[in-house]
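We read letters as residues; the fold follows as tokens. A sample entry reads:
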Amino acid sequence: MKNIILKTVTSLLIIGGFSSCDDFFNPESKGSLLEGDYVKEKSELYTAYFGLGALVADVADQAVFLEGLRGEFLEPTDNAPQEIWDVYNYESDLKGNSHADPKGYYKIINNANDYIAHLDDFRKKNPSVLSEAYYLGLGGGAVRFKVWSYLMIAKLYGEAVIINDPITQYTDINKYPKASFDQIIDQCIEWMENGDRGYNGRNTIRWSKDDFLLIVGNNETASDLEWNRITPVYQALLAELYLWRRDYTKSLENCLNLITEGANEASFLLNLSDYNGEWISMMKQYTRKEHINAAFYSYLKGQTNRIHRYFSNQLPNQYVVKPSKMTMERYNRQVRNGNSLGDQYRGNGKTFKTTDGQVVVNKFSTGITSINVHYNDVIIPIYRASDIYLFMIECLNNLGRFEEASVFLNGGINAYFDAPNGKWVGVFADKGYPTALYKASGDRSCAGVRGRVDLAPVNVPTDEIIQLGTLAQSYIAKMDSCLVEETCLESAGEARGYYAMLRNARNYPEMRAHWAKDVASKYGEKGAVIENLLASDINNWFIKYDLND
């Protein structure tokens, strides 16, 4: 893999003396950082850290398009360049394709390695400038940026070159080991749990008015600060990593840990308190109750992305991709409570919309059909509350806790909480669920993934007919398949659905053909070719990009 790593820290030129929070989201990116100038003051540690967050924003939109084009959500329009069509058509080698290039992810990894090395050096020379907790928290955050990048590479490409040292110049990195999908997952868990140069991914730092003294005039509360949401939280990362490893007990533990922590701030509960769990608005504005981690783009701060340019059909936007017919049909066939058809909160008019005779992705902007849409800010979720609940449901299902799984997927927890005595009852008793999941006004209680958008429950067998053995295993497989469908509905356009299919196809080889047919249904005459490609070999689900050249 030659020349794929950019010179280290090229986007993190250190600038001291910031006077406002705006500057932190706009680290200078034109120069390169000289070793002798790196990290002389603690302010520079903060600045470089937020530069890592800026690098995540550089690739977040790329992930949306790569997953959507290869999954069932998106298809190219007649305006799409050949590179987009090549990604869509599963070309055998996408080397040189800028949309498929993994360089941005490796850039995060390389800069995270460099940051950790310099942080460690600064810490040894200046042990009292920051508290030990802050040093460990900054290092832990850098580890999580690195781990998130490797997890994305695993899902996109199926393999990765493992680099654990900062690279300071263009070099041939074939000397570094290449890891398989499962090896990447194991290595990421090792970094998270046991550390990288003494910094493990569980160590966190909490940005608040009192702690983050570099922000002058900051009046936001700790629970509202966006800076707390730009770094992937360790519980979400570990929950997903352990899910890929099929360690459902540890994945569930991290899900519950995060939900409990969020519940203390009245967050991450899938409530119905605003606009059916704020599902309508949460892609258009920062929503504390839903956004666990996100990439933020501000037009006024000059933070650009391709969401509006590719999705909107209003000039000067390019309208490069559109929702597939299969995606729209998936929403339209959903049954609402009361037996009406159509997903009213996540379907027509919300996730997609018809304007000027063309169907556009409507999810990320209040004004996707406006000629001024490019002025709107964009939020791309990295993790949000529903992701954690879908992870948790998959864990509960595979652990044989079927009734709990069904409750969180469907109608919510109200019937399982004894409000007068403030305790859980039935199968929810003594399971570690936070009491904050229940609110005195019923519409504010955790309503379940489908419940908060008023969809009829998925029909599942009762515990009385679930027997240990073959029937139970058959039910687990069926429920896992339902969760893939629900992920495609809940998280369309967020780089989720295709990877839920991938995990299901890896866990149940017999399901590979089913999901291959599902994806291939959007391809028309070429559908049979794509279906055979995906059904024949699990490795064909990954992007083919020659990492050795």
